[in-house]
Design brief:
By secondary structure, the chain is an alpha+beta fold. The protein has a single domain, classed as Bacterial Pleckstrin homology domain (PH-domain like, Roll), CATH 2.30.29.50. About 20% of the residues lie in helices and about 40% in strands. The strands form 2 sheets. It has a 5-stranded antiparallel beta sheet with strand order 1-2-3-4-5. β3 and β4 form a beta hairpin. The longest helix has 13 residues. The chain is globular and about 40 Å long.
Amino acid sequence: MGFFDALMGNASSLEPSELNEEFAPILADNEHIELAFKLVRDMFIFSNKRMIIVDKQGLTGKKVQYHSIPFKSITHFIVESAGHFDMDSELKIWISGTKDPISYELSRGSDVVAIQKTLANCLFS
């Protein structure tokens, strides 16, 4: 992730195989990470069972909040690809019982097709 992208709040892709070991203590039995993105210090992770938002807090980032959203709670989502003049992609996810979506801007080159496919596979299977 470039410095400019970090300042602008854009997310970049992470390697799921590296994160499976790091997050093994909080993953359920037979759960594995399929797709992950980092947003400065925070991450959002798609496993085969849920979406996990990792929110590092404070100056040192030692305090961490893990927001776990089961896929059955996701009512709908939007994945918007970058255009010629628009450098960013966007992801919006609506959770049942909430008015506003969880929203992220993804840096150009983020695999929006993989995000779309991962969400569709998890929600519709």
